[in-house]
Design goal:
This protein is α/β, with parallel strands linked by helices and 347 residues long. The chain contains nine helices and 15 strands. The chain has two domains: 141 residues, Rossmann fold; 181 residues, Dihydrodipicolinate Reductase, domain 2 (2-Layer Sandwich). The strands form two sheets. A nine-stranded mixed β-sheet has the order 14-13-12-11-7-10-9-8-15. Strands 3-2-1-4-5-6 form a six-stranded parallel β-sheet, sandwiched between helices. α4 links the parallel β4 and β5. α6 crosses α7.
Length: 347
Protein backbone atom coordinates (compact mmCIF):
# COMPACT_ATOMS: atom_id res chain seq x y z
CA UNK A 1 0.00 0.00 0.00
CA UNK A 2 1.11 3.56 -0.66
CA UNK A 3 1.12 5.07 2.83
CA UNK A 4 0.57 8.55 1.44
CA UNK A 5 -2.98 7.26 1.01
CA UNK A 6 -5.48 6.46 3.71
CA UNK A 7 -4.90 3.55 6.06
CA UNK A 8 -8.09 1.50 6.17
CA UNK A 9 -8.90 0.10 9.58
CA UNK A 10 -11.58 -2.11 11.10
CA UNK A 11 -12.84 -1.84 14.67
CA UNK A 12 -14.09 -5.03 16.32
CA UNK A 13 -16.31 -4.45 19.34
CA UNK A 14 -18.72 -1.51 19.46
CA UNK A 15 -19.84 -1.55 23.08
CA UNK A 16 -18.34 0.89 25.58
CA UNK A 17 -14.89 1.59 24.11
CA UNK A 18 -15.15 0.74 20.42
CA UNK A 19 -17.13 3.89 19.48
CA UNK A 20 -14.35 5.99 21.05
CA UNK A 21 -11.81 4.27 18.82
CA UNK A 22 -14.01 4.85 15.76
CA UNK A 23 -14.39 8.53 16.67
CA UNK A 24 -10.67 9.10 17.12
CA UNK A 25 -9.48 7.11 14.11
CA UNK A 26 -12.09 8.92 11.98
CA UNK A 27 -10.70 12.29 13.10
CA UNK A 28 -7.19 11.52 11.80
CA UNK A 29 -6.39 12.69 8.26
CA UNK A 30 -4.53 9.57 7.13
CA UNK A 31 -7.08 7.02 8.34
CA UNK A 32 -10.45 5.68 7.28
CA UNK A 33 -12.55 3.42 9.47
CA UNK A 34 -13.91 1.10 6.81
CA UNK A 35 -15.53 -1.56 9.01
CA UNK A 36 -17.20 -1.80 12.40
CA UNK A 37 -17.94 -5.29 13.71
CA UNK A 38 -20.01 -6.44 16.67
CA UNK A 39 -22.13 -9.48 17.47
CA UNK A 40 -25.02 -7.24 18.57
CA UNK A 41 -26.82 -5.60 15.60
CA UNK A 42 -28.32 -2.81 17.73
CA UNK A 43 -24.82 -1.52 18.46
CA UNK A 44 -24.05 -1.46 14.75
CA UNK A 45 -27.23 0.49 14.06
CA UNK A 46 -25.92 3.24 16.34
CA UNK A 47 -22.60 3.29 14.48
CA UNK A 48 -24.40 3.52 11.15
CA UNK A 49 -26.31 6.57 12.40
CA UNK A 50 -23.18 8.32 13.62
CA UNK A 51 -20.83 7.29 10.80
CA UNK A 52 -22.76 6.62 7.58
CA UNK A 53 -19.56 5.87 5.66
CA UNK A 54 -18.55 2.96 7.92
CA UNK A 55 -19.62 -0.49 6.80
CA UNK A 56 -20.96 -2.77 9.54
CA UNK A 57 -21.05 -6.52 10.03
CA UNK A 58 -21.63 -9.16 12.70
CA UNK A 59 -19.02 -11.41 11.01
CA UNK A 60 -15.35 -10.60 11.63
CA UNK A 61 -14.36 -12.65 8.56
CA UNK A 62 -15.90 -9.94 6.37
CA UNK A 63 -13.45 -7.46 7.87
CA UNK A 64 -10.47 -9.79 7.60
CA UNK A 65 -11.26 -10.86 4.03
CA UNK A 66 -11.20 -7.25 2.82
CA UNK A 67 -7.80 -6.71 1.15
CA UNK A 68 -8.04 -2.95 1.68
CA UNK A 69 -8.14 -3.33 5.47
CA UNK A 70 -4.60 -3.03 6.76
CA UNK A 71 -5.19 -2.87 10.49
CA UNK A 72 -7.78 -3.92 13.07
CA UNK A 73 -8.49 -2.57 16.56
CA UNK A 74 -10.02 -5.02 19.05
CA UNK A 75 -12.27 -3.62 21.82
CA UNK A 76 -14.06 -6.73 23.06
CA UNK A 77 -14.21 -8.54 26.44
CA UNK A 78 -10.84 -9.73 27.73
CA UNK A 79 -11.59 -13.43 27.35
CA UNK A 80 -11.91 -12.92 23.57
CA UNK A 81 -8.67 -10.96 23.09
CA UNK A 82 -6.40 -13.90 22.37
CA UNK A 83 -8.70 -15.68 19.93
CA UNK A 84 -9.52 -12.50 18.02
CA UNK A 85 -5.94 -11.20 18.15
CA UNK A 86 -4.60 -14.46 16.74
CA UNK A 87 -7.23 -14.42 14.00
CA UNK A 88 -6.41 -10.84 13.00
CA UNK A 89 -2.65 -11.47 12.97
CA UNK A 90 -3.12 -14.69 10.98
CA UNK A 91 -4.97 -12.61 8.38
CA UNK A 92 -1.90 -10.38 8.05
CA UNK A 93 -3.38 -7.27 9.67
CA UNK A 94 -1.63 -4.90 12.08
CA UNK A 95 -3.32 -5.25 15.46
CA UNK A 96 -4.33 -2.97 18.31
CA UNK A 97 -5.77 -4.78 21.36
CA UNK A 98 -7.41 -3.05 24.28
CA UNK A 99 -6.02 -3.63 27.77
CA UNK A 100 -5.35 -6.06 29.25
CA UNK A 101 -3.71 -7.67 26.24
CA UNK A 102 -4.96 -11.20 26.99
CA UNK A 103 -6.08 -13.47 29.83
CA UNK A 104 -2.64 -14.96 30.48
CA UNK A 105 1.05 -14.30 29.91
CA UNK A 106 1.21 -17.45 27.78
CA UNK A 107 -1.40 -16.03 25.41
CA UNK A 108 0.47 -12.72 25.26
CA UNK A 109 3.70 -14.52 24.36
CA UNK A 110 1.99 -16.35 21.52
CA UNK A 111 0.54 -13.13 20.07
CA UNK A 112 3.96 -11.46 20.27
CA UNK A 113 5.57 -14.33 18.34
CA UNK A 114 2.83 -14.30 15.70
CA UNK A 115 3.29 -10.57 15.10
CA UNK A 116 7.07 -10.92 14.98
CA UNK A 117 6.96 -13.78 12.49
CA UNK A 118 4.68 -11.81 10.18
CA UNK A 119 6.37 -8.44 10.56
CA UNK A 120 3.18 -6.84 11.89
CA UNK A 121 2.64 -4.09 14.44
CA UNK A 122 1.13 -5.34 17.70
CA UNK A 123 0.06 -2.62 20.10
CA UNK A 124 -1.85 -2.63 23.40
CA UNK A 125 -4.29 0.10 24.43
CA UNK A 126 -2.46 1.40 27.49
CA UNK A 127 -4.07 4.77 26.84
CA UNK A 128 -2.68 6.77 29.72
CA UNK A 129 1.00 6.47 28.81
CA UNK A 130 0.00 8.66 25.83
CA UNK A 131 -1.59 11.30 28.06
CA UNK A 132 0.30 14.61 27.78
CA UNK A 133 0.10 14.95 31.58
CA UNK A 134 1.80 11.58 32.12
CA UNK A 135 4.45 12.48 29.54
CA UNK A 136 5.09 15.70 31.47
CA UNK A 137 5.48 13.80 34.74
CA UNK A 138 7.95 11.47 33.05
CA UNK A 139 9.98 14.49 31.88
CA UNK A 140 9.97 15.95 35.39
CA UNK A 141 11.21 12.65 36.87
CA UNK A 142 13.89 12.15 34.20
CA UNK A 143 15.15 15.73 34.65
CA UNK A 144 15.96 14.99 38.28
CA UNK A 145 13.84 17.91 39.49
CA UNK A 146 11.91 15.87 42.05
CA UNK A 147 14.93 13.83 43.15
CA UNK A 148 14.75 10.08 43.69
CA UNK A 149 11.25 8.61 43.45
CA UNK A 150 10.44 7.22 46.89
CA UNK A 151 7.03 5.83 46.08
CA UNK A 152 3.98 6.20 43.82
CA UNK A 153 0.38 5.99 44.99
CA UNK A 154 -2.42 5.53 42.47
CA UNK A 155 -6.19 5.52 43.11
CA UNK A 156 -8.66 4.66 40.33
CA UNK A 157 -12.18 4.44 41.75
CA UNK A 158 -15.74 4.77 40.50
CA UNK A 159 -19.24 3.29 40.81
CA UNK A 160 -19.23 0.54 38.14
CA UNK A 161 -18.85 -0.47 35.35
CA UNK A 162 -19.11 -3.95 36.84
CA UNK A 163 -17.57 -6.73 34.75
CA UNK A 164 -18.57 -10.37 34.79
CA UNK A 165 -15.43 -12.01 33.38
CA UNK A 166 -12.64 -10.14 35.25
CA UNK A 167 -12.24 -8.51 38.64
CA UNK A 168 -11.56 -4.83 39.27
CA UNK A 169 -7.79 -5.32 39.32
CA UNK A 170 -7.77 -6.75 35.79
CA UNK A 171 -10.19 -4.05 34.67
CA UNK A 172 -8.67 -0.87 36.14
CA UNK A 173 -5.15 -1.67 37.37
CA UNK A 174 -3.68 -2.08 33.84
CA UNK A 175 -3.93 1.72 33.55
CA UNK A 176 -2.10 2.27 36.83
CA UNK A 177 0.50 -0.45 36.25
CA UNK A 178 1.32 0.80 32.75
CA UNK A 179 1.69 4.38 34.05
CA UNK A 180 4.00 3.27 36.88
CA UNK A 181 6.16 1.12 34.58
CA UNK A 182 6.40 4.01 32.13
CA UNK A 183 7.35 6.56 34.79
CA UNK A 184 9.91 4.41 36.61
CA UNK A 185 11.26 2.42 33.65
CA UNK A 186 11.85 -0.50 36.00
CA UNK A 187 9.80 -3.60 36.76
CA UNK A 188 8.63 -4.82 40.18
CA UNK A 189 10.19 -7.91 41.73
CA UNK A 190 7.25 -8.81 43.97
CA UNK A 191 3.55 -8.08 44.41
CA UNK A 192 0.95 -8.13 47.19
CA UNK A 193 -2.77 -7.99 46.50
CA UNK A 194 -5.82 -8.04 48.74
CA UNK A 195 -9.46 -7.55 47.81
CA UNK A 196 -13.10 -8.36 48.41
CA UNK A 197 -16.13 -9.32 46.30
CA UNK A 198 -19.24 -7.55 47.58
CA UNK A 199 -21.63 -7.61 44.61
CA UNK A 200 -20.77 -10.56 42.34
CA UNK A 201 -19.48 -13.73 44.04
CA UNK A 202 -15.77 -14.44 43.41
CA UNK A 203 -15.26 -11.25 41.34
CA UNK A 204 -13.49 -8.71 43.54
CA UNK A 205 -14.87 -5.19 43.19
CA UNK A 206 -12.24 -3.55 45.41
CA UNK A 207 -8.51 -4.37 45.48
CA UNK A 208 -5.24 -3.00 46.82
CA UNK A 209 -2.00 -3.90 45.04
CA UNK A 210 1.51 -3.21 46.34
CA UNK A 211 4.46 -3.32 43.94
CA UNK A 212 7.99 -3.73 45.30
CA UNK A 213 11.05 -2.83 43.24
CA UNK A 214 14.63 -4.09 43.54
CA UNK A 215 15.97 -0.55 43.99
CA UNK A 216 13.79 -0.05 47.07
CA UNK A 217 11.00 1.67 45.16
CA UNK A 218 7.40 1.07 46.14
CA UNK A 219 3.99 1.64 44.54
CA UNK A 220 0.42 1.34 45.81
CA UNK A 221 -2.64 0.84 43.60
CA UNK A 222 -6.21 1.09 44.94
CA UNK A 223 -9.00 0.13 42.54
CA UNK A 224 -12.75 0.00 43.12
CA UNK A 225 -16.06 -0.30 41.27
CA UNK A 226 -17.82 0.46 44.53
CA UNK A 227 -16.99 4.06 45.31
CA UNK A 228 -19.37 7.05 45.25
CA UNK A 229 -16.90 9.33 43.47
CA UNK A 230 -14.89 9.01 40.30
CA UNK A 231 -11.26 9.27 41.39
CA UNK A 232 -8.23 9.27 39.06
CA UNK A 233 -5.40 10.36 41.32
CA UNK A 234 -1.70 9.53 41.13
CA UNK A 235 0.86 10.89 43.60
CA UNK A 236 4.60 10.68 42.93
CA UNK A 237 6.68 11.33 46.05
CA UNK A 238 10.27 12.33 45.37
CA UNK A 239 13.13 13.08 47.72
CA UNK A 240 13.05 16.76 46.66
CA UNK A 241 9.54 17.42 45.37
CA UNK A 242 6.15 15.74 45.00
CA UNK A 243 3.74 15.54 42.07
CA UNK A 244 -0.04 15.08 42.17
CA UNK A 245 -1.79 14.11 38.94
CA UNK A 246 -5.58 14.42 39.04
CA UNK A 247 -7.00 13.32 35.70
CA UNK A 248 -10.50 14.44 36.67
CA UNK A 249 -9.39 18.08 36.57
CA UNK A 250 -10.25 19.80 33.27
CA UNK A 251 -7.24 22.13 33.23
CA UNK A 252 -4.58 21.90 35.94
CA UNK A 253 -4.12 18.13 35.94
CA UNK A 254 -0.59 18.27 37.41
CA UNK A 255 0.62 20.09 40.49
CA UNK A 256 4.25 20.06 41.65
CA UNK A 257 4.76 20.61 45.39
CA UNK A 258 8.14 21.82 46.61
CA UNK A 259 7.80 19.83 49.82
CA UNK A 260 10.04 17.30 51.52
CA UNK A 261 11.20 15.93 54.84
CA UNK A 262 14.85 16.22 55.81
CA UNK A 263 16.72 14.60 58.66
CA UNK A 264 19.68 16.33 60.32
CA UNK A 265 22.97 16.09 58.45
CA UNK A 266 24.74 14.94 61.66
CA UNK A 267 23.81 14.39 65.26
CA UNK A 268 25.66 13.12 68.32
CA UNK A 269 22.75 12.02 70.52
CA UNK A 270 19.11 11.07 69.98
CA UNK A 271 18.16 14.35 71.60
CA UNK A 272 19.96 16.19 68.78
CA UNK A 273 17.91 14.37 66.12
CA UNK A 274 15.21 16.53 64.57
CA UNK A 275 13.35 16.27 61.29
CA UNK A 276 12.93 19.42 59.28
CA UNK A 277 10.04 20.01 56.93
CA UNK A 278 10.55 22.01 53.77
CA UNK A 279 7.52 23.87 52.41
CA UNK A 280 8.07 25.69 49.13
CA UNK A 281 5.96 26.82 46.21
CA UNK A 282 3.28 24.83 44.42
CA UNK A 283 2.99 25.18 40.66
CA UNK A 284 0.99 23.67 37.85
CA UNK A 285 3.13 23.08 34.72
CA UNK A 286 1.64 23.84 31.34
CA UNK A 287 0.39 20.72 29.58
CA UNK A 288 -1.02 20.58 26.06
CA UNK A 289 -4.61 19.34 26.28
CA UNK A 290 -5.16 16.52 23.81
CA UNK A 291 -7.23 13.39 24.22
CA UNK A 292 -4.84 10.52 25.09
CA UNK A 293 -6.80 8.07 22.94
CA UNK A 294 -6.31 10.30 19.90
CA UNK A 295 -2.56 10.34 20.57
CA UNK A 296 -2.63 6.53 20.90
CA UNK A 297 -4.51 6.11 17.61
CA UNK A 298 -2.09 8.43 15.81
CA UNK A 299 0.86 6.51 17.28
CA UNK A 300 -0.60 3.22 16.05
CA UNK A 301 -0.87 4.59 12.51
CA UNK A 302 2.68 5.98 12.72
CA UNK A 303 4.05 2.55 13.67
CA UNK A 304 2.33 1.04 10.63
CA UNK A 305 3.81 3.68 8.33
CA UNK A 306 7.30 3.73 9.85
CA UNK A 307 7.65 0.14 10.99
CA UNK A 308 8.74 1.36 14.43
CA UNK A 309 8.02 -0.31 17.77
CA UNK A 310 4.95 1.07 19.55
CA UNK A 311 5.51 2.58 22.99
CA UNK A 312 2.88 0.14 24.28
CA UNK A 313 4.00 -2.86 22.25
CA UNK A 314 3.18 -6.51 22.87
CA UNK A 315 6.02 -6.94 25.37
CA UNK A 316 4.70 -3.96 27.31
CA UNK A 317 1.28 -5.62 27.37
CA UNK A 318 2.85 -8.90 28.46
CA UNK A 319 4.64 -7.24 31.40
CA UNK A 320 1.36 -5.80 32.68
CA UNK A 321 -0.37 -9.20 32.43
CA UNK A 322 2.53 -10.91 34.22
CA UNK A 323 2.10 -8.46 37.11
CA UNK A 324 -1.68 -9.00 37.12
CA UNK A 325 -1.16 -12.78 37.23
CA UNK A 326 1.17 -12.38 40.22
CA UNK A 327 -1.44 -10.14 41.87
CA UNK A 328 -4.08 -12.83 41.29
CA UNK A 329 -1.88 -15.45 42.93
CA UNK A 330 -1.37 -13.14 45.90
CA UNK A 331 -5.11 -12.45 46.11
CA UNK A 332 -5.82 -16.18 46.13
CA UNK A 333 -3.38 -16.67 49.02
CA UNK A 334 -4.78 -13.92 51.25
CA UNK A 335 -2.31 -11.25 50.20
CA UNK A 336 0.96 -13.14 50.54
CA UNK A 337 4.06 -11.76 48.83
CA UNK A 338 4.44 -13.20 45.32
CA UNK A 339 7.55 -12.79 43.19
CA UNK A 340 7.10 -11.59 39.63
CA UNK A 341 9.33 -11.98 36.59
CA UNK A 342 8.69 -9.77 33.60
CA UNK A 343 10.08 -9.68 30.10
CA UNK A 344 11.45 -6.52 28.53
CA UNK A 345 11.80 -5.84 24.82
CA UNK A 346 15.25 -6.11 23.32
CA UNK A 347 16.68 -2.65 22.90
Amino acid sequence: MNHAELINIGVVGCGYWGPNLIRNFSSLPNCRVKWACDVRPERLERIEQLYPGVRTTVHIDQVLDDPEVEAVAIATPVFTHFELGAKVLSAGKHTLIEKPMASSAEQCQELIEMAKERGLALMVGHTFIYAPAVRKIKALIDSGEIGDVLYISSRRLNLGLFQTDINVAWDLAPHDISIILYLLDVDPVSVNCQGKAHVTPHIEDVTNISLNFANGGFALIHNSWLDPNKVRLTTVVGSNKMIVYDDTQPLEKIKVFDKRVEGPRRYDTFGDFHYSYHYGDTNSPFVIHEEPLKVLCRHFLDTIVNGSRPDSDGVNGLRVVQILEAASRSLASNGSLVSVTTRRADR
